[in-house]
Write a structure and sequence with these properties.
By secondary structure, the chain is of the alpha/beta class. It has one domain: Rossmann fold. The protein is 38% helix and 16% strand. 29% of the residues are buried.
Length: 146
């Protein structure tokens, strides 16, 4: 069985998230999704709109997903979750800022030489990201005089 791991915030779940997870699932037999810990989201991005438990529950309801775990807090190294998940493939979203080369080097340094790192394609839609959706909502609210 080929195990795939996908990671993300998944705040305000949208079609781009579903597309990412469908593509990730196509890389193997079992898809485990790591939903970012609230403290990690705060430190690296923004205050989450929905908490980690709700994001975990929402992602778990998506058809391609076999298992969902909440990621480590930011004090714990990100690679410490790998023994729990034991992925054969790490699927990166098209817009995730992670560099495949640096992840590959970090995996190799830790002895995870057999894990493949794959960047999946994006959804060809103008509303494939949370920030784009929020911007569109704000734009419409402004044009409607709200």
């Amino acid at each position: 069985m080929k195990r795939v791991m996908a990671v993300g915030v998944f705040d305000l779940l949208h079609a781009g998230h579903l597309h990412y997870l469908e593509q990730a699932k196509s890389l193997g037999d079992h898809l485990t999704v790591v939903v970012a810990h609230d403290d990690t989201v705060r430190q690296r991005k923004h205050e989450p709109i929905t908490n980690q438990e709700l994001r975990q529950r929402m992602v778990a309801g998506l058809k391609p997903v076999d298992e969902v775990v909440v990621g480590n807090s930011p004090e714990v190294p990100i690679f410490d979750i790998l023994p729990q998940i034991q992925p054969d493939v790490i699927a990166l979203g098209y817009d995730q800022e992670h560099a495949e080369d640096s992840i590959r080097r970090a995996l190799d340094e830790r002895g995870y030489t057999s894990i493949r790192v794959v960047r999946v394609e994006g959804l060809s839609d103008d509303l494939d990201g949370t920030r784009k959706i929020i911007a569109k909502i704000l734009e419409r609210a402004k044009s409607n005089g709200a």
